[in-house]
Design a protein that fits this description.
alpha+beta, single chain, globular, six-stranded mixed beta sheet
Length: 202
């Protein structure tokens, strides 16, 4: 299913991952859905103390937006008694590259046109060592205009059961946050595309 081109919508997608039973056992992951969601009512938005939470992403403020996104995700985890996700450079690189690829090639899916999955992309990074067991996950989102702020994106994820499950998965310890200015649909106008790569190594 393709995300709507309407700028009054936020497109979101999720993939869930299955943990390895042992370091030598390969993990598997299956994308579960690509879901366009309607506008989040203003009344549903709670004020956040995370700096940059309400900023529309630009080429200049992307580092602030990435930090705000991680701050918001960790706020949600803290409220549910979970440990904070730790930023990992290797996962961030995977997330940034994939967000850029989706924008450049105008597609929105966990599987790229060449067929690679987020597990493939993370395996090609230096996040995992040979023989590592792992649990991996990925959340995607894009939003147009004011609906591209970290607060709106994280709220959309938390309102979607599958995305929420990734954010509140107690097994995940690490994260890479990617934010790219631009949307992954032709003619979609101004906005931003987000990728979160979640991981745990064992």
């Amino acid at each position: 299913m393709s995300p709507h081109h309407n700028l009054c919508r936020i497109g979101i997608a999720i993939a869930a991952a299955v943990a390895c039973l042992a370091p030598a056992t390969p993990a598997s992951a299956t994308p579960t859905s690509v879901i366009p969601t309607s506008v989040i009512p203003t009344s549903a938005i709670e004020l956040s103390s995370c700096a940059g939470a309400y900023a529309e992403p630009t080429a200049v403020n992307r580092p602030v937006v990435r930090r705000a996104t991680l701050c918001l995700l960790n706020e949600e985890r803290t409220q549910h008694g979970l440990g904070r996700l730790r930023p990992r450079g290797a996962l961030k690189m995977v997330a940034e590259r994939y967000a850029r690829r989706m924008v450049t090639r105008s597609f929105f899916d966990h599987v790229c046109p060449e067929g690679s999955t987020f597990v493939d992309r993370i395996k090609r990074s230096n996040y995992l060592d040979a023989g590592d067991g792992f649990t991996l996950g990925e959340n995607l989102a894009w939003g147009g205009g004011p609906r591209a702020t970290p607060e709106r994106i994280v709220r959309a994820w938390m309102d979607s059961p599958g995305h929420r499950a990734n954010i509140l998965n107690g097994r995940f310890r690490d994260i890479g946050v990617g934010v790219v200015v631009g949307v992954p649909v032709a003619g979609g106008g101004q906005g931003a595309t987000y990728v979160n790569e979640f991981g745990t190594r064992s």
